[in-house]
Amino acid sequence: MAKLFIIVGPSGCGKTSLVKNLVKKIDKLNVSISCTTRVPRANEKDGVNYFFITKDEFIKIKNQNEFIEYAKVFGNYYGSNRKHVEDMLVKGNDVILEIDWQGARQIKQRFAKAISIFILPPSIEALKQRLDARNQDNKDIINKRMQASVSEIKHFNEFDYLVVNDNFEDAIEKISSIIYSKRLTLDIQTKKYKNLIKKLLSTQNSI
Ligand code: 5GP
Question: Which of 18, 59, 112, 164 is the most exposed place for a label (fewest CB within 10 A)?
Fold first, then answer.
């Protein structure tokens, strides 16, 4: 019943802030905390932003087939832990995976019903501004990320939904609508309101 949402977009498109806001705002929506071999940034905490692990630990988890997807991005490994994601789904929570296009492809192959959303920045200038403003990476890394961003954008047409993050509140509203609409499909609502529907239909016989 619970759903997997994939959110992808170039570095600096604002997807992390969007996801943070969405899980705060929408009930029963969790975000998957990825494992990475990247060094933590100054404001990042282990187990909150990522599970920061060594390359050896990453390879071990990968060899045990414990990642539902993984990829090498900017020279570091990132992966979504199967058990971590399954635990949230089993509890009936929808899960957002904030990953890159390579991981999104793997998820779509394994979970055809996963819903994928691509976030576009309003312009290249805005993307650069956001990466500069973040002030967390050095110039060399920022330039590399700018190049990688354009490569990432090339994959926009592999996704189910496209949202331009021009205005934050507007983007939140659009992504929320996607999530709510997926929760309101006939199959899900029929299961949720099984008793109500039964009662309503049985009333027909007694009229
Ligand atoms: P950052 O280092 O800026 O936190 O993330 C770099 C890129 O890695 C972003 O595009 C982010 O979405 C992606 N990423 C983060 N976690 C995962 C993951 O678990 N799997 C994959 N495939 N990509 C991830």
Answer: 112
Atom of ligand 1 nearest to the CA of 8: 12
Question: With 90 as the cut, is the pLDDT of residue 137 above it?
Answer: no
Which CATH number is 4-32+93-201 given? 3.40.50.300
Which is more confident, 89 or 150?
A: 89
Residue 50 has what DSSP assignment? B
- Of all protein residues, whose CA lies closest to atom 24 belonging to ligand 1? 99
Task: Give the whole-number percent of the chain exceeding pLDDT 90.
Answer: 83
Question: 0.90 cut: is pTM over it?
Answer: yes
Tell me if 174 sits within 8 A of 168, measured CB to CB: no
DSSP line for 144-205 = HHHHHHHHHHTTGGGSSEEEE-SSHHHHHHHHHHHHHHHHTSHHHHHHHTHHHHHHHHHHHH
Measured in Å, residue 149 CA sits from the centre of ligand 1 at: 12
Where are the chain's structural domains?
Answer: 4-32+93-201
Backbone phi and psi for residue 164, each to the nearest 5 degrees, phi listed first: -90, 125
User: Whose C-alpha lies nearest to ligand 1, atom 16?
Assistant: 99
For ligand 1, atom 17, the nearest C-alpha belongs to 99
In angstroms, what is the span from residue 169 Cα to ligand 1's centroid? 23
**Dist. CA 100 → ligand 1 center (Å):** 6
